[in-house]
Design brief:
The complex is a heterodimer of chains A (221) and B (555).
Chain A: E1 4-5, E2 14-15, H1 24-59, H2 61-70, H3 73-99, H4 102-133, H5 151-186, H6 195-220
Antiparallel strand pairs in A: 1-2
Helix pairs in contact in A: 1-5, 1-6, 3-4, 3-6, 4-5, 5-6
Chain B: H1 32-36, H2 41-69, H3 80-115, H4 124-146, H5 160-163, H6 168-195, H7 208-240, H8 253-287, H9 294-307, H10 323-351, H11 360-382, H12 385-391, H13 395-425, H14 431-458, H15 472-502
The chains are: A mainly alpha (221), B mainly alpha (555).
């Protein structure tokens, strides 16, 4: 990601072209391609967990059904809506960045971040409930109400995948915070320079996308 | 970014018209900081070379300790637990810290932009970051190895790895971090190939080394995340007993093996595909002939990368996998042999009627050809289920993967080191010593591992500390071979170190090669080329008349 050189006289911001690129288009193309490849690796990271999920679901269908029914569907649904909406505001930020409306970029990212915090708060309530009743992974599983082979594995998969997802939410929040601060303080995004906003937003869409897989897998099916 | 390492803005006039004003990358900035914070792909490649060689030394010393221990049955120089830790450390260091980064991170980094006529890789700062991520992972993993050690072998098979009291967590976490470095390098090279090619370099005018690195990078990007996840899961399980792969809690250890080999089998091609790329360059240069079947060689790299993803199950023939699965994985494994054979035939076709200039890198090419074909053929044999079952986890397997992974890669690494030494340092080494040490190393390698084929075939299992009397003669032979190998490496270290300081100037293109990387100076200036971006009107490896190969025009 290339930052822009802010001109001292207040003229239109000019994005900086690193010397090793032939042109600005090539530089943007490279940044975008790099990000897409990185996102592919992220999807593959989660794909490993999906394989574990599929394998154990096949081995322990009853435990999987019982485990998935024990989750709070309302909280999960609200979280899904919150996260999808946050993706919308992240996409709008890119739209405004292309128009050079830096204030709107900042506001949109601020909204995205608020919703991300909301997501994590709901997640916190879900987690603390599970900590309370003891539906935890592996040897920490103490809940008496649900006893069948493979049930502890369901919660292992549940906690591993949601925790890894939550970690990605936190990383995404960090990226968006940096972009938001830049938009507010430096106001240097514009038609020629929105790579950072675009890539940050792409990362946020990935976080959203992974959740869109996790939600039906863990809560619905 | 420091002033010395920041890149000039495009179009800004360089410091002068004369070549003298463009110092080589080696002397452009001499402070420690100018090296440690550089974004120049050549300096990063050189720093990688330093660390990779250091870890090779560490792994090599531990290999020798294993060989000395196995010199006699029963305890020789260490106890059984130390032995377990020693072979684990040997495997881990050699695979994660040497073999995987060796050619891509050192020579890929150095040569890829030069071969594409680019000033640098696409993301220079990410490139530097990948060096430090690699070092951070190495430090964490080695710290774990020294504080308690790990006795699982480099494959970390569960449930043993989740129950052993040795330090699994830091070592696995270190390997996980090293994976990030591998991914970052892979992404960087793919994007570089897509966006940084000089005008005129179409996809099918890229040198074959670039093709090989491109295919390798695809594997790195696609396979590494899976093992990253797996290492995290095993670490978590080892620390907190989550039971993901623990049969006592309903977990499936075979699932671990699937996920592990989904990365670790393609990882073999991360090691060996760059080696194939190096050999394509070398065989063309020293035969003074255009590479035979350029497109077939390029496509077969992608073919190996692709098929390599569907062969992992051959590590699990005896894991309780169904006979049908085993058959499918066996056939898919043999497909790799088809693509590799395409390359081998094309190399031989290139040498045929060429004007062979038998220099040190070409000597390594000969060794490489033998190791690849012999190692590859034993691989086909091992891919046959009925043969794999008796050979499984014996020294036959050890000898096989050392032949193909280590033999082929070491040959290519040394060939690349000798071939590009003049380009990287601007100096020549002593050809006679080069040939002597190449002969020593090829002989030593055969003497080390051919006895192991026989040992395995006679039934000696791998990773065992003790063995019956009747295996001793072959073990002694193997240890003797390993000593010869070590001796060869010492000679190389000595004459290359000498050449670094006292070697005579190499000039721009000492091998009269048509490779694109020889167009720039030796050693190249910081931004690789003096003046405007070069164009490459001819195809790479383009020799008009093998008997009178011409030096390419200076740009």
């Amino acid at each position: 990601m290339q930052s822009s050189a802010h001109t001292a006289d207040g003229a239109a911001p000019v994005p900086r072209l690193a010397a090793h690129f032939a042109s600005l288009e090539v530089q943007t193309h490279a940044a975008r391609l790099g990000m897409w490849l990185f996102l592919a690796t992220e999807i593959l990271l989660f794909a490993g967990l999906f394989v574990c999920y599929g394998c154990y679901r096949f081995l322990y269908p009853e435990a999987w059904a019982a485990g998935s029914r024990s989750l709070d569907l309302t909280m999960g649904t609200v979280n899904t809506v919150v996260l999808i909406t946050s993706s919308l505001t992240a996409a709008l930020a890119v739209h405004y960045a292309k128009e050079g409306k830096n204030k709107m970029v900042g506001i949109m990212f601020a909204l995205t971040l608020l919703m991300a915090i909301g997501f994590l708060v709901i997640k916190y309530f879900e987690y603390s409930h599970k900590f309370h009743i003891g539906t935890l992974p592996g040897r920490y599983y103490t809940y008496e109400g649900m006893q069948m082979p493979g049930i502890t594995l369901y919660f292992t998969v549940y906690f591993c995948s949601t925790a890894l997802h939550a970690l990605h939410v936190l990383i995404g929040m960090g990226v968006l915070t940096v972009a938001m601060i830049r938009a507010f303080t430096k106001a240097d995004f514009g038609p020629n320079n929105f790579t950072m906003v675009e890539l940050g937003s792409m990362y946020w869409h990935l976080v959203d996308l992974v959740w869109i897989f996790l939600f039906p897998m863990l809560y619905l099916v | 970014m420091t002033p010395s390492s920041s890149l000039d803005t495009a179009g800004a006039a360089p410091h002068g018209e004369h070549h003298d004003h463009h110092p080589s990358y080696l002397v452009d900035g001499t402070t420690i900081k100018s090296w440690l914070l550089t974004v120049d792909h050549k300096r990063i490649g050189l720093m990688f070379l330093f660390w990779v060689l250091l870890f090779f030394l560490v792994g090599g010393i531990f290999a020798l300790l294993i060989r000395i221990e196995l010199l006699t049955p029963g305890p020789t120089i260490m106890d059984a637990m130390t032995y377990n830790r020693t072979f684990t450390l040997h495997g881990l260091v050699m695979i994660f810290l040497f073999m995987i980064p060796a050619i891509p991170a050192v020579f890929g980094n150095f040569m890829l932009p030069l071969m594409l006529g680019a000033k640098d890789v696409a993301f220079p700062r990410l490139n530097l970051a990948s060096l430090y991520i690699y070092l951070a992972g190495a430090v964490i993993a080695l710290w774990g190895m020294l504080n308690g050690g790990l006795d699982t072998g480099w494959t970390f098979y569960t449930p043993y790895s989740t129950h052993t009291t040795t330090t699994v967590a830091p070592v696995l976490f270190g390997a996980f971090i090293i994976g990030f470095s591998s991914i970052a390098t892979g992404i960087n090279f793919i994007v570089t190939c897509h966006t940084m090619r000089a005008p005129g370099i179409t996809w099918f005018k890229m040198p074959l080394f670039v093709w090989a690195i491109y295919a390798t990078s695809c594997i790195q990007v696609l396979a590494t995340p899976v093992i990253g996840l797996l290492l995290v899961l095993v670490t978590v399980e080892n620390l907190f007993s989550f039971g993901m792969f623990d049969p006592a809690r309903g977990g499936d250890p075979v699932l671990f093996q699937h996920l592990f080999w989904f990365y670790s089998h393609p990882a073999v091609y991360i090691m060996v595909l760059p080696a194939f790329g190096v050999m394509s360059e070398i065989v063309s240069t020293y035969s003074r002939k255009n590479i035979f079947g350029y497109r077939a060689v390029a496509y077969s790299s992608l073919g190996i990368a692709f098929v390599g993803f569907f062969a992992w199950g051959h590590h699990m023939f005896v894991s309780g996998q169904s006979t049908f699965d085993a058959g499918v994985f066996g056939v898919l494994t043999m497909l790799v042999g088809v693509f590799t054979a395409i390359k081998v035939f094309n190399w031989i076709g290139t040498v045929y009627k060429g004007a062979v200039d038998f220099k040190t890198p070409f000597a390594y090419f000969c060794g490489f050809l033998f190791f690849t074909v012999f190692g590859g053929m034993t691989g086909i044999a091992l891919g046959t289920v009925s043969l794999d079952v008796p050979w499984h986890d014996t020294y036959f397997v050890v000898a096989h993967f050392h032949f193909i992974m280590v033999g082929a890669t070491i040959m290519a690494f040394l060939a690349a080191l000798h071939y590009w030494f003049p380009k990287m340092f601007g100096r020549m080494y002593h050809e006679g010593w080069g040939l002597v040490s190449a002969a020593l190393i090829i002989l030593g390698f055969n003497a080390t591992f051919i006895p192991q084929f026989l040992l395995g075939n006679n039934g000696m299992p791998r990773r065992y500390y003790d063995y019956p009397e009747r295996f001793q003669a072959l073990n002694v032979a193997s240890t003797a071979g390993a000593s010869l190998l070590a001796f060869g490496f010492i000679i190389i270290a000595l004459y290359l170190a000498y050449a670094l300081v006292y070697g005579k100037a190499a000039g721009k293109n000492p091998w009269r090669s048509k490779g694109y990387e020889w167009v720039s100076e030796s050693p190249p200036p910081t931004h690789n080329f003096v003046g405007p971006q070069p164009t490459f009107p001819e195809e790479p490896h383009f020799y008009v008349d093998p008997k009178k190969a011409e030096v390419p025009d200076a740009v």
